[in-house]
Model the fold of this input.
Amino acid sequence: MQTSIIKKTYRSETAHRVLNAVSSRCKYNIHGHSYLWEINIEGTINQETGMVFDFKELQPIKDFIDKFDHAMVLWEKEDDEIKQFYLKHYSRIIIMKQNCTAENMAKVVYKFVSDWLQKINNIRYTNFYCTQVDVWETTTGCGVAVDYDENDVLIYLHDDDK
Done:
């Protein structure tokens, strides 16, 4: 059976602060980026459709990444006063187990996509898998994930979508 890789991109406007960064601008200031999220999925080409996946079927991935759009992403080690301020005054807050770098956000999404594909595989008896997630913070810099571990999870996701 022939396999192929599909790539789907999504966009979000997301804010964060990167504790322990070398750059003072990133370390001491909340700032945002126009993120480009690239998801790569490999699987067997369906002989009836000629596709690995119809892109419309990737809606759960789009919905997950959308949680980052116009959201504040914080590390669980962020100052409690800052976390409480955002939780009290804003509706789209994400708290991560790892520092909220592009690399770690890529791992969070990689984990989500891998878990979602496992459910699809169990239902369809197929073998789709995520090969890579790229998270572009700028046009010249991205973080890449090709695996994850149990530390690559979200602690808290507050999304009132006000």
Summary: The first helix runs from residue 24 to 28. Residues 70 and 141 are 20 Å apart (CA to CA).
